[in-house]
Amino acid sequence: MFGEILKRLRKEKHMTQSELGKAISVSKVSISKYENGAQFPDTDTLQKIADVFSVSTDYLLGRTDNKNYWALNSVDEKDVKKTLDDLLNNLDSNNAMAFNGEPLDDETRELLAISIERSLRFAKEEAKKKYTPKKYRD
User: Fold this and answer.
1) pLDDT digits over 72-84, tens only?
2) Vertex 56, ends 26 and 49: CA angle to 5°?
3) What is the pLDDT of residues 10-52, one digit of tens each?
4) How many whole angstroms separate alpha carbon 37 and alpha carbon 96?
5) Structural domain of 91
6) Do 43 and 89 reside in the same domain of the chain?
7) Residue 67 lies in a domain
8) 6: burial class by Cβ within 10 Å (0-12, 13-18, 19+)?
9) Is residue 66 domain-resident?
């Protein structure tokens, strides 16, 4: 599984085995062995590979489908949805959804909801990046 994931990530980045080897200070032969399952990298090399592709070591090892530790999980998704619903309901109940004293049309209202949702997701991801202890990042 690791080998398949490594090969896919390398190809997605349009890297050769030689280029990846140089980036992590191992030979092209080692990269080939990793991809074919004939050899497994040590922990330092595994972390270097994760850093090159900006993914977690858990993703490389097939333990998670989330490429990054800060990716939102199902609990985060529910939290974003609840917060968004609460914000929109609060804005509706206070007649705060208006522009120049005129109520928002449906299209503008939908765009506002999308913008708020993206902002909530971004804030959640940034908080995970900043406040997740290093020992839980991979």
Assistant:
1) 777 888 999 999 9
2) 10
3) 999 999 999 999 999 999 999 999 999 999 999 999 999 988 9
4) 59
5) 74-136
6) no
7) no
8) buried
9) no
Whether residues 107 and 55 fall in one domain: no
What is the domain-level CATH number for residue 37? 1.10.260.40
Predicted structure pTM score: 0.54
Tell me the backbone φ, ψ of residue 42, rounded to 5 degrees. Answer: -75, 175
Residue 89 amino acid letter: N
| 68: in domain | no
SS (H, E, C) the chain: CHHHHHHHHHHHCCCCHHHHHHHHCCCHHHHHHHHHCCCCCCHHHHHHHHHHHCCCHHHHCCCCCCCCCCCCCHHHHHHHHHHHHHHHHHHHHCCCCEECCEECCHHHHHHHHHHHHHHHHHHHHHHHHHHCCHHHCC
Q: Give the number of domains in the chain.
A: 2
